[in-house]
Design a protein that fits this description.
The structure is a single chain. With 261 residues, the protein is an all-alpha fold. The protein has a single domain, classed as Heme oxygenase-like (Heme Oxygenase, Chain A). Helices cover 79% and strands 0% of the residues. The chain is built from nine helices and no strands. Helix 7 packs antiparallel against helix 8. The longest helix is centred in the last third of the chain and has 48 residues. The radius of gyration is 22 Å and the shape is globular. The termini are far apart. The site of one fe (ii) ion has 6 residues, from helix 5 and helix 8.
Length: 261
């Protein structure tokens, strides 16, 4: 998996990356290299073999994309008419479309597995609404955060597409094609945010700390995904252990005449 600097080099082909941006990207990559990053590929390999887990993940991604779309539209509304505002509004439209794509995939996988995830993801929308309500008007820091989030999505989708390429079965090509379509948009989002960060840092705006903070925050957030995957596999085991425990207690209680009427 490429680091952030390699990815930006490919995205900004022909555009000179300034020293400050290069330095910030190296530090941001180093700050997240040894944490949840190392689990991305194995997690994707596990997930693509379990449609019920994919169903849950797609439901969650659908809400995340919707939250991002709403945030982008709200922040764009605070800006004067500029190219950046237009780009953020276009970006918001893409994220609304991604929310619909993931929602459609979640429905399809739900029918396929005859399972319905009922997890309440309202907290994702609440978090973003809180962020917008407390936004301090610093759009340069917002773009740092956005770039870090897009980079995380890029990594997640790239590992999923690779894992699905090795997979046979009826749902794999459908998911792979949908993920590739979303990935194309995420490339564009990374490219334009990288372009702005490069320009700003070249002009002397100090954004390294903000970028590193963004990468760290999204990396920590990724542990929620790790935890959700562990929970998915643990739940039946815990339920069966609780069942055994209850049986054991019942037998013990019966032998002690405690449950007799
Ligand atoms: Fe997206
Ligand atoms: Fe995006």
């Amino acid at each position: 998996m490429e680091n952030a600097l390699e990815v930006v080099r490919q995205l900004l082909l022909g555009e000179c990356i300034c020293d400050a941006f290069e330095d910030a990207l190296v530090e941001a990559s180093a700050a997240t290299k040894c944490s949840s990053f190392v689990l991305r590929e194995p997690l994707a390999i596990v997930a693509v073999s379990h449609p019920a887990l994919l169903h849950r993940n797609c439901r969650r991604h659908s809400v995340s994309e919707l939250a991002t779309a709403k945030t982008l539209r709200a922040i764009a509304a605070t800006l004067k008419p500029t190219k950046l505002r237009d780009a953020l509004l276009k970006h918001a439209q893409d994220e609304y479309r991604h929310a619909r794509i993931f929602r459609g995939l979640a429905r399809y996988l739900g029918k396929l597995t005859e399972q319905t995830d009922v997890t309440d993801y309202q907290w994702i929308l609440d978090n973003d609404a809180y962020f917008v309500a407390h936004y301090n008007g610093d759009v340069t820091n917002f773009i740092c955060d956005l770039f870090a989030g897009e980079f995380r999505t890029y990594r997640f989708l790239t590992t999923y597409v690779a894992a699905l390429s090795d997979k046979t079965g009826n749902y794999a090509p459908k998911l792979r094609n949908a993920f590739i379509a979303v990935l194309d948009d995420e490339h564009r989002h990374l490219a334009y945010t990288a372009h702005y960060l490069n320009d700003w840092m070249r002009s002397g705006i100090q954004l390294k700390d903000s970028l590193v903070r963004g990468f760290r925050a999204y990396d920590q957030n990724s542990w929620i995904e790790v935890s959700a995957t562990a929970e998915f596999f643990c739940k039946p085991l815990v339920a069966s252990l609780v069942g055994h425990l209850a049986d054991g207690l019942h037998q013990e209680a019966t032998s002690m005449s405690l449950w007799r009427s």
